[in-house]
Design brief:
Blueprint (H helix, E strand, L loop, with lengths): L2 H19 L2 H7 L6 H7 L1 H4 L6 H21 L9 H24 L2 H20 L8 H22 L6 H21 L5 H12 L4 H22 L5 H16 L3
Helix pairs in contact: 1-5, 3-9, 5-6, 7-8, 8-9, 9-11, 11-12
Length: 254
């Protein structure tokens, strides 16, 4: 399976998601839904690796993508200003996408998917709320929260369809990507509440933000490359695709 096929498959999933949530007014003011292609890539890993994948899995993956789009729309509201017209429309876009995935889930009759995504959404929101709470947490607790925010819904999808052996790989990969983005933003002076709290926790632990972030990134890289290499269920071309992504991401932080 070459890179072109993988990219075309991701593009097709994005198109399918856009079709299901298209709304002319929202698109005019807020653009297309925000979709992370890395999340879509890891969502489709079992498919790329030759697992049994029927129309039900495709429809479920589209629904998961819509959930991520809804949550991303709400996440993109500025932390200190949610009163402008653009911000209000972004809130409405998130609500609209939420309505669409509830509608799709209800019409599908897929009780297992409804239960799994409901649990995943609740867990993700619980971890997201932690960013706004004034409670002390260790650096590792923050990393665990970010891991759930980034990969929790995919983990629910994998568990539902017996793809659980991919979960650790995807959790570590998406956590790595998020930490790299956060560290790059921090280095560019673009603060976030998450970065502020990680920095505070690092200081309480007698270290610095840069050290804990860089150490975690190196740890994740080492573990991922080893797991990919030693994995018995991954096809060779998928191993190469995964290794290339991990190594490319890490080069960008050096």
């Amino acid at each position: 399976m070459d890179a072109t096929y993988i990219q075309n498959s991701i593009a097709q999933l994005k198109t399918d998601i856009f079709i299901d949530v298209r709304h002319r007014t929202l698109q005019k003011y807020t653009g297309d839904p925000v979709l992370d292609e890395n999340q879509l890539f890891y969502l489709l890993i079992p498919f790329f690796n030759g697992e049994e994948w029927q129309q039900e899995q495709t429809e479920a993956a589209i629904t998961v993508g819509i959930v991520y789009a809804a949550l991303a729309a709400h996440d993109h509201i500025k932390e200190l200003d949610a009163t402008s017209k653009d911000q209000q429309l972004t809130v409405l876009a998130g609500d609209f996408y939420s309505g669409r995935y509830y509608e799709i889930l209800a019409s599908s009759g897929n009780v297992g998917l409804i239960r799994s995504l409901s649990q995943g959404i609740a867990a993700r929101c619980e971890h997201q709320i932690k960013v706004y709470e004034q409670e002390e947490r260790t650096v590792e607790q923050w990393f665990a929260a970010v891991e759930n925010i980034e990969a929790g819904l995919i983990a629910q999808f994998f568990n539902l369809y017996a793809f659980g052996h991919y979960i650790t790989l995807v959790e570590k990969s998406l956590l790595l990507l998020r930490l790299e983005r956060e560290m790059a933003a921090h280095q560019n002076g673009q603060g976030s509440l998450l970065n502020i709290y990680i920095e505070k926790s690092a200081i309480l632990e007698g270290t610095t933000y840069d050290i804990v972030m860089q150490n975690k990134i190196v740890q994740l890289k080492t573990e991922l490359l080893q797991e990919i290499k030693q994995s018995s269920f991954l096809q060779q071309d998928i191993k190469q695709a995964l290794q290339a992504r991990v190594e490319a991401n890490l080069v960008s932080t050096n």
